[in-house]
Amino acid sequence: MYKAELIINKDFRKAEINPLLYGSFVEHMGRVVYSGIYEPGHQEADEDGFRKDVISKVKEMGVTCVRYPGGNFVSCYNWKDGVGKKEERPRLREIAWKSIETNQFGTDEFMDWAKKAEITPLFAVNLGTRGVENAVSLLEYCNLPAGTRYSDWRCENGHEDPYGIPIWCLGNEMDGIWQIGHKTPEDYGKLAGQTAHAMKSLDPNIKTVVCGSSSTDVATYTEWERIVLEYTYEFADYISLHQYYGGQERGTDEFLSQSVEMEEYIQTVIGICDTVRSKKRSDKKIDICFDEWGVWEIPGGEVADSVAARDWEVAPAFSEQIYTMEDALLFASMLMAMIKNCERVKAACQSLLTNISAAIMTEQGAGVWVQPIFYPFSHMAAYGRGVLMESVLKAPSYRTKKNKEVPYLDQVAILNEEANELVIFLVNRRNESAELNVNLQGFYMGHEAEHTVLFHNDIKADNRCNHENVMPLCGRIALAENTKIDCKIRPYSWNMIRVQVKQYE
Predict the structure, then answer these.
(1) 150 to each of 81, 122, 144, how far by Cα in Å?
(2) Distance CA 316, CA 326 (A)
(3) Which domains, from first to last, does the chain contain?
(4) E-assigned strands of 300-400?
(5) Could you tell me the pLDDT band of residue 57, with boundaries at 50, 70 and 90?
(6) Percentage of the chain exceeding pLDDT 90
(7) How would you classify the pairing of strands 405-407 and 397-399?
(8) What is the CA radius of gyration of the chain?
(9) Annotated catalytic residue: which of 140, 173, 225, 297?
(10) Of the listed 94, 140, 292, 326, which one is catalytic?
(11) Ranges for the Alpha-L-arabinofuranosidase C-terminal domain (predicted)?
């Protein structure tokens, strides 16, 4: 057992956490939409074909916002194919994921679903094969009152009130050679700037997200961000970050260390944003929308090969990854990395919502179950609200093969002043228990704290066969002093400590 100390002072506060940090992502890919959130005829389907059992899990997960409709899908998508009478919508060959798109689920269906799921929509526009006009017409359809062509079309389709979608993503991964219509940073920057200008001329209330690099592994990373921002700074509000981590085969220590790399990624992009800001002598700060993130195990080449090898199908099942206890630990630390940087990371979308790299899994014509990653997300979404505290951790660390120093204990502390509650999230990256002492300065507590733990003796355990195999347990910690918490943190575990606090004047 190793020892660790965490110091939290009531006066050392970092930033308010934006609830949109707890978002997800829906793309027309595999079974994410069809038989995921939408399955007419299912015993749990409502009058619109939306699976009520899935909506219930989305609410339980605490998802606050959802990005739609892509993803790679959006770069070939014409939104006009997915509205109007369903019997008149075209069946098309969707080339991003080699599938048949029926267009039975489109903009209006998503917005109806979003209302029922009680989430904020984030919309992406096609800047791969289309451009300014297509983006502006979609914005008019969604956000403008009746009286002109596309807003009147929305009314004719049964939606009189504007949707008021607040955030718009300008394309998807436009740096990637896999992206249909991928571009140079100069070409994308010009197009994104023109599109954002036009969209904000039509609806000044919206915020826009320009594409950053699709990952830190692409050759143009950092240069892409700089060039794109130089073209778009006046009209952009956010820049996107995307990151998936695999590498389970390299061992648990190396695998779990990747959240430290994610923190470095965020800080690097913030630095680029602020460099361009200085160059332009602007008072405006560009924030971050981390609009795709998650754990990914299947090699990209294997995914591409499986897509290329199959026939054209409607909603083919592929890339339906099964997550382990180990995956849940990295997943939790990735979300914690964004919380740590919440002064600039203002929105994030876990990828994806159902079936593909997802917390929620559906069985076509049958039930729904959740993976281990569901639980850290749901607890952080529920209780990670308020002000991020500047905490100090004293704990041992280890060095990775990349010569990065990684603390065995990963943590964030959050003060919810409305609830008079201090919440601490922790990941133990070591196969050894920790004896943790939490020292509160300027706070005093009651007689006990709540301690929720996600742990399994087998770090490779999953929920595929036994859907309740990896689940959190909740207990209590008796407090001997009103300014200290002493507790044991289990090996390879995710933890949440909640305690009622008062502040000294």
Answers:
(1) 13, 19, 9
(2) 28
(3) 2-12+387-503 (2.60.40.1180), 18-383 (3.20.20.80)
(4) 345-350, 360-362, 368-370, 387-389, 392-394, 397-399
(5) very high
(6) 95
(7) antiparallel
(8) 23
(9) 173
(10) 292
(11) 291-493
Give the chain's length: 505
Q: How far apart are the first and last CA of the chain?
A: 37
d(CA 477, CA 495) in angstroms, rounded, equals 13
What is the average per-residue pLDDT within 247-263? Answer: 96
Residue range 191-216, pLDDT digits in tens: 999 999 999 999 999 999 999 999 99
CA-nearest of 456, 450, 413, 469 to 17 is 413
Please state, in angstroms and rounded to a whole number, the distance separating the CA atoms of residues 195 and 203.
12
Tell me which amino acid residue 144 is. Answer: L
Which residue has tokens 């008072």? 283
Residues in CB range of 133: below 8 A, 6 or more apart: none
pLDDT, position 75:
98
Look-up of token digits 């219509």? 181
Query: Residues 445-497: pLDDT tens digits?
Result: 988 999 999 999 999 999 999 999 999 999 999 998 889 999 999 999 999 99
Distances (CA, A) of 485 to 2, 394, 397, 448, 488: 16, 15, 22, 9, 10
pLDDT of residue 504 exceeding 90: no
Up-side HSE of residue 101: CA atoms within 13 Å toward CB? 26
- Mean pLDDT of all residues in the chain? 96
Q: What is the mean pLDDT of residues 94-118?
A: 97
How far apart are the C-alpha atoms of 220 and 217, rounded to whole Å? 9
* pLDDT score at 93: 97
Cβ(171)–Cβ(128) below 8 Å: yes
**Which residues are CB-contacts of 412 (< 8 A; sequence separation ≥ 6)?**
336, 339, 340, 384, 388, 391, 424, 425
Tell me if residue 254 is catalytic. Answer: no
pLDDT of residue 105: 98
Query: Rounded to an integer, what distance in angstroms lies between the CA atom of residue 253 and that of residue 171?
Result: 35
Is 297 known to be catalytic?
no
Answer yes or no: is pLDDT of 505 > 80: no
Over residues 216-238, the mean pLDDT reads 97
Q: Is there a contact between 139 and 124 (Cβ–Cβ < 8 Å)?
A: no
User: Quick one: tokens of 393?
Assistant: 């951790």
